[in-house]
Amino acid sequence: MRREDLLAALRALPATDRVITALDVPSAEAALALTGRLGDRARFVKVGLELFSAGGPTVVQLLQGRGKRIFLDLKYADIPNTVAGAARVAAALGVSLVTMHASCGRAAIAAAAAALADAPENEMRLRPALLAVTVLTSLGPDDLAETAPGPDTIPARVSRLARLAWTAGCDGLVCSPTDLPAVRAELGGQPLVVTPGIRPPGADQADQKRIATPRAAFAAGADFLVVGRPITGAEDPAGAHAAIAAELEVRP
Ligand code: C5P
User: Which domain holds residue 217?
Assistant: First the structure.
């Protein structure tokens, strides 16, 4: 499936499908209990390193059995042959979004993209989209000075890695609300952007530093939001999810 067709189909999803709930819990049982409280309308969920380490492909299949579509956020960082193999297996599981680090380089991104190009369709009748992570939002200038000394600033590194990932064939990027304007300025409206660090007005910031409200992130060009604690920690997770999705409906 061509990149343009995949991106158009994902962007056509209703707002309720564009708020992805991060199931950051340590067991399959906890994930299933949480999805019960989330209800049927919160259909898109993120399985990250914690839950996948606990539940593996089985938890993905259990969630799919409950009608969920899956953002498999394992942030692959390895040689081309290995990331391509991992992407192929993720696609066979029927997930909708997968992630890798752009810093793996052009050959690894291209190999993963090629592996997904021929992947079987998932329940949306689409192949999985490949998203690249540029600079982790937990890293600041001091970290960069240690890991990659030089004149690079974080915004410059984000822009460069975003361009590399896009030209190597990925479908989009995961980026913080504060990186979003730079990424859109660098690459325009085409790449799919999934944005974490979302906090509704008045919500607890917790450990996130670079945050935005759902409406602001969407207005800045996010296509999907990934939201954890503001939904999963709410007394009424289904209501919290619906309230955030409603914010997206008022896109200017
Ligand atoms: O609870 P909270 O809304 O902060 O959760 C945000 C989710 O987005 C978590 O699952 C976290 O792993 C993920 N994420 C992030 N920053 C990134 C990439 C992913 O916060 N750069």
Answer: 3-248
Tell me the three-class secondary structure of 212-245, residue by residue.
ECHHHHHHCCCCEEEECHHHHCCCCHHHHHHHHH
Q: Which pLDDT score is estimated for 251? A: 52
| Residue 221 to residues 36, 186, 194, 251, Cα–Cα distance (Å) | 31, 13, 9, 10
Among left, alpha and beta (phi > 0; psi -120 to 50; other), residue 34 is: alpha
- Please give the number of the atom of ligand 1 that sits closest to the Cα of 229: 1
Is 75 catalytic? The answer is yes
What pLDDT was estimated at residue 223? 97
pLDDT of residue 26: 97
Distance from residue 46's CA to the centre of ligand 1 (Å): 10
Confidence (pLDDT) at 225: 97
Instruction: Give the CATH number, domain containing residue 164.
Output: 3.20.20.70
The low-confidence residues of the chain, meaning pLDDT below 70, are 250-252
Contact 216, 244 (CB under 8 A): no
Q: Which of 24, 199, 209 to mutate to test the pocket of ligand 1 (most atoms within 8 A of CB)?
A: 24
The DSSP annotation for 77-105 comes to -S-HHHHHHHHHHHHHHT-SEEEEEGGG-
CB 136 less than 6 A from any atom of ligand 1: yes
Q: Please state the domain count of the chain.
A: 1
- The amino acid sitting at 224 is F
Phi, psi (degrees; rounded to nearest 5) at 22? -80, 115
**pTM score over 0.85:** yes
The pLDDT of residue 138: 82
